[in-house]
## 1
Amino acid sequence: MEVTRRGHKLAKFQAIDEYRSETTLSVEGLCEILKVSKSGYYKWLNHEKQAYQTEDDWLMEKIRLRFIDSNGVLGYRQMCIHINRDHNTNYSPGKIRRLMRLLGLKSHIRRAKGYSTQASERNLEPNLLNQNFQASHSNEKWVTDVTHLFYGGHKKAYLSVIKDLYDGSIIAYQVSQRNDNPLVLDTIKQAIEANPGATPIIHSDRGSQYTSGAYRKVTNELGWRRSMSRTGNCYDNAVIESFFGTFKCECYHYNYFPTYKDLTDEIDAFMDRYNNRRYQSKLNNLAPIEFRNKIAA
């Protein structure tokens, strides 16, 4: 907290320096309004900056602008990747974290939520993944799930997603106002159109869509191997749960969607950003599609 308070004080000194020529108030009056000492302001104004301080000032401005551009969703690790890619630098995450604290910048915090999928007792499948979320090539292991959303107050919508465990890319997603079999089957159709001939292990929970006869029939025809989480165990599908957490933190929770189209437009924008511009350290600081294309080249 002390570091953050120091950042706020520096920001106040900078504000006084910026506005003192544009107001009839004296420096003393501005200091009194902002509750900082006049002597402290002049000490800050007259001190000779060292080279590292000048560099930090430049870097803090780049961090501030990038944080604003991301709507406040970048933590220090993601910020570090963006800054280094944007400016061909090699700053450490620790340095970025220190400067973000000085600026008083904190990303949105993801909140844990209980696991509440209703399990079916028919058409069950074994847990083939068994929490092994590593894949040696694309289209080897896919995970899928549906999450519910709200728009226009209390109207419900549903987002169905399929994610590739190899590169973390979202290879298919569909949004619907109904949580039914067509939602999941349309997601499968989109996935196979984008990846013709793929025969992955497809892992899901035991929700009604995934234990339906229609889902079983389609995946059999495609030659996919079905895998399912154990009852009430969110860790068995932790990767897709984590993705939904990221989506809701960075896109959903801090927005209001008056209409269904407002919601779907924002989902489209997020999916494009996630696949193409959300860099990941485990992918050598590349975005999922960037990594996939580089490996395929």
## 2
Amino acid sequence: MIESLHALGSKGLAGRIAIFAAPTDLATEALGRLVGQYGNATLDDARVVVALGGDGLMLETQHRLLGRNLPVYGMNCGSVGFLMNDFGDTSLPDRLALAQATTLHPLRMRAHVGMGDPVEALAINEVSLLRETRQAAKIRILVDGKKRLDELICDGVLVATPAGSTAYNLSAHGPIVPLGANLLPLTPISAFRPRRWRGALLPAEARVVFEVLEHDKRPVAAVADYTEVRDVRQVEVWEDRTVALTMLFDPDHGLSERIIAEQFTV
């Protein structure tokens, strides 16, 4: 898909750009300016999608486009914008034609709740388990069928993608993972026991299973980006390489570079 953008060039992208915007004054004003200059193609006609907002809108847009194989170029009209490029309303087709692609594979969550059917969802940032009440959660962790931690007493625990390693994972003191490392951070959230356990780095092909202990007394919710499942008993998490998401970045503003730079931010 990115090769076709380069082949089309800036002139060939005329009428092929779909634009989404967050429901904020800044993003709405930017939408009006861009649509006035470049139009707003339907998804069926588009070759690329421009997302105006913050990182939340980028995630929302990627979920909305699942199965369409359209690259997304974000421009920051929000608060964080780690996954976004700088906003500018000039030379947009040129920027798109020169953009570099980053391919991401999301995590797939399969959450089991009692006797009902499991709930599946995709996560571009992370899958997190979170306690629902004042009592700490008790969670057993298995990796590739082998028990690795018999009982984690905590507020929660998460598995992040490399792209998501700078989000909630970093706030929970998890490691930042470069995109090409083929690693997934597994990070506890406010661990009480074992107190000194700081998490683990797992190979990208690992399959993680969380078993919720004392689930009636200590209920736990599982969250995959926008999907929340409450009162889970068991949650499976793995990288779904059958799904590929493409984000576009300016040549001097790539995601890999930002992940490296974030590790030197003081």
